[in-house]
Predict the 3D structure of the following.
Amino acid sequence: MTATVPLLVETLFPNGISHYLLGGILIGLGTAVIYLGTAIPAGASTFLESTLSYVSKLSRFQQPKFIASRDWRVVFTLGIVAGAAGYSLIAGDFGWTTEVQPWRLFLGGILIGVGTRLGKGCTSGHGVCGVGSGSSTSIANVAVFMIVAVGVAQLVMALGVSP
Amino acid sequence: MSAQKDHEQHPLFLPLIFVGGLIFGAGLAMSQMARPEVVLAFLQFSDLGLLFVMGGAAAVVGTTIFVASQSGRSAPLTGKRYARRLKSMDRNVMYGGTIFGVGWGLSGICPGAAYASLGIGNAAILYGIVGMFIGAYLQGYLREAKAESMSGQPAD
């Protein structure tokens, strides 16, 4: 009985949990620093539309909320890129490349672009800030994308698509 | 036409955003959520570590937002009142969540993790990032076309 628990942990978390937990806490701290300084619960996907406002005349993108936030959202995204680059350079695994096929990244990306903007947020906006706010809208959104994503990922695996 | 910009209020606004982004990006690299394979392993139940990434982040942010919004104070760099992130519920939240879920399950990427993935030197992620911009443009275009056809004049 006492041996079952470590075995279960090893099965569910074959790579341990410490880097997952510490990484998650850092993601939370980055969001918290911005929130405490500005009261803005920053999400990552609004960047897509606010950046389009630089180049598209569509009034959907020319909304004041996008114009007002587009500069800092570019800075936020550059920070994310630089922070990840810095960490991987120090850790010595910079240059790691995914083997997931380009068509999956591209088609998935299109659906993510549509879905996060239609649904008012993504893994960080709804998943971290919204769930952290106890927002029932965000909790419902996260539950839906989580369940659907598990289903699709399992289906893709069952169909033998790999990587 | 000169919309007020969020960052015109305080010289430390943009530096703080950058520092927050650095920490956020380092966390995505450390947790390996910047790797699509790790996200797919979670969704396929072979490694549930991502629960701790999202749980850890939500716990830190949840505590911060709760304490700050209870304080009744305002943020030093914007003067904005601390408040919870609450969005209105409508059908689009469910449709959007479903479409995002299909994309996330197919590719193992999401917006923040994709930016971080570029940072760790994963150039192939550009397929995903370009796709995201196309998708964001597409929904904006279609929603605007729909609004125009319903009102009979340009939506503004």
About this structure: The two ends of chain B are 13 Å apart (CA to CA). Chain B touches chain A through 124 residues (CB under 8 Å). The CA atoms of residues 43 and 105 of chain B lie 7 Å apart.
